[in-house]
Design a protein that fits this description.
15 helices, 3 domains, 11 strands, alpha/beta, two-stranded antiparallel sheet, globular, single chain, Rossmann fold, 469 residues, 12% strand
Length: 469
């Protein structure tokens, strides 16, 4: 799709979102008065013109928030599940703000109507977007809007792009082939060396170019980009340092120089720190209150199992290397630490961490509370104290930290947590290197929506007991 066509699609998408949200207000009013109360809807029962005007302004503002969250543009690389979560959360937050303003200005309006408004607006926008995705996919599969793509490079980066995008027909690309100094056994449709690049573009029929090679000189990349501009082909570059770039990179400008922030502890600002701490305090307090009967039962079961203490405290390493005492329900026999050395040869994970599926040090009760993650409940107290957070990398042992390299140390840039990307991506089934990458990814992506997503995913993982032992 050309840039001009994409702009029209974006505009139509924004207008339809706003119209559906505005329509949802009247649907909510009709649902309350006509459907539930069997009362004829009039302008008076609907709140009159002021409320309709507020609904219109609200619709425009919500669409603006959608735009700020980059929810308009090509669907190709956007996940449906992530979009649905964004819509539900944005509409929910917007509804709460609207309710607060109505209360502040002493405007009497039904909370049932507002709840219905949130439900209708969310469902209508989600359904519309799913239909739009289906239509787009239909045209892509039918070849009506498939973009012809040319890949430059035949090395590791090009192979990864080929596996991720080209082999997945859902992205809607027609693969023309690839150019490289030497053919790759992994990628199909070799078109020749890089010297043929300009001729292929000039011949026409190429909509997009992806440059994915570590060996090109800067001057040659520049000439390729210029040629793409001349022949109206969109060009993207996967840089050689791709694996060091955060998912949301920050670009600074010094004169004519662009500085891409590739690795630092992201400063999310004071507002995020306040929100994060508020979520931790409220979440841990609610957790302690709601799970107190369960924790009492677990404590009794652990105590009766072998007569040892119910709680187990252990020194862990927190933010910036600061040590603290972490609490758990004891799942191992009392002499577990003394027996660790003799079991090191049975370690089932690489790196400094120790994991063993059938660890003989685990008690019968311990196997159950580990499988269900009940052994972690006392850490809600660590969260309330401020040593930990609800979402964050798991706190490592000091003996593990001394074996960290410089990259691994980056996971200590934030408070450790009860759950993180590692827990929702396989837990003990994930290798140590992948574990570190997931933790570093969270350090870069941390934020309100990220934490909400991790918390919801954690519930599913705990219920299934996946990767826990």
């Amino acid at each position: 799709m050309s840039k001009s066509n994409q702009k029209w699609v974006n505009a139509l998408n924004m207008i339809s979102d706003g119209a559906l949200i505005f329509l949802s207000y009247f649907m909510a009013v009709i649902f309350r008065f006509d459907f539930l109360w069997d009362q004829k809807v009039t302008m008076e029962t609907a709140g009159g013109t002021p409320f309709a005007l507020v609904a219109g302004i609200y619709s425009v503002l919500i669409v603006m928030v959608y735009a700020m969250m980059r929810m308009y543009g090509s669907y190709r690389f956007k996940k449906e599940s992530k979009e649905i979560v964004y819509i539900l959360c944005i509409n929910g937050a917007g509804t709460l703000v609207l309710l607060s303003l109505l209360f502040l200005f002493k405007l009497d309006f039904s909370r049932l109507t507002m709840l219905s408004f949130w439900c209708f607006s969310s469902v209508l926008v989600i359904v519309k977007r799913m239909i739009a995705r289906g239509i787009m996919r239909h045209f892509e599969v039918g070849g009506y809007r498939r973009h012809v793509l040319l890949l430059v490079g035949g090395g590791e980066l090009a192979e990864r792009y080929y596996d991720t995008v080209i082999k997945n027909g859902g992205y809607g690309y027609e693969f023309k082939g690839y150019l490289a100094d030497e053919p790759s056994e992994h990628i199909e449709s070799y078109l020749g060396g890089l010297d043929k690049f300009r001729d292929l573009l000039a011949a026409g029929g190429v909509d997009e170019v992806v440059i994915a090679t570590k060996r090109l000189e800067q001057e040659k990349v520049g000439s390729m980009i210029a040629a793409c501009g001349r022949y109206s082909a969109k060009v993207s570059v996967i840089p050689a340092y791709n694996d060091f770039i955060p998912s949301l990179p920050h670009v600074e400008q010094a004169g004519t120089l662009k500085l891409v922030n590739v690795r630092s502890t992201p400063d999310k600002g004071l507002a995020w720190k306040i929100i994060k701490r508020s979520m931790d305090v409220v979440g841990s307090l609610l957790g302690l209150i709601l799970t107190s009967p369960i924790m009492l039962g677990v404590a009794i079961a652990v105590k009766r199992c072998d007569g040892g203490p119910a709680l187990f405290s252990q020194t862990r390493v927190g933010k910036n290397g600061k040590e603290f005492k972490m609490y758990k329900f004891r799942s191992m026999y009392i002499d577990a630490e003394q027996r660790l050395a003799e079991l090191q040869k049975f370690n089932e994970v690489d790196g400094p961490a120790f994991k063993m599926e059938n660890d003989p040090r685990i008690t019968k009760v311990g196997k159950f509370i580990r499988k269900t993650s009940l052994d972690e409940l006392p850490q809600l107290w660590n969260v309330l104290k401020g040593d930990m957070s609800i979402v964050g990398p798991r706190p490592p042992l000091p003996r593990e930290v001394v074996q960290y390299n410089d990259w691994d140390w980056g996971r200590l840039a934030v408070k450790p947590g009860l759950t993180c990307y590692w827990q929702v991506s396989g837990r003990s089934d994930v290798s140590f290197d992948e574990w570190m990458k997931l933790d570093l990814q969270y350090v870069e992506e941390q934020g309100f929506w990220t934490d909400v997503k991790v918390i919801f995913k954690t519930v599913g993982v705990v219920v299934l007991g996946k990767g826990a032992y």
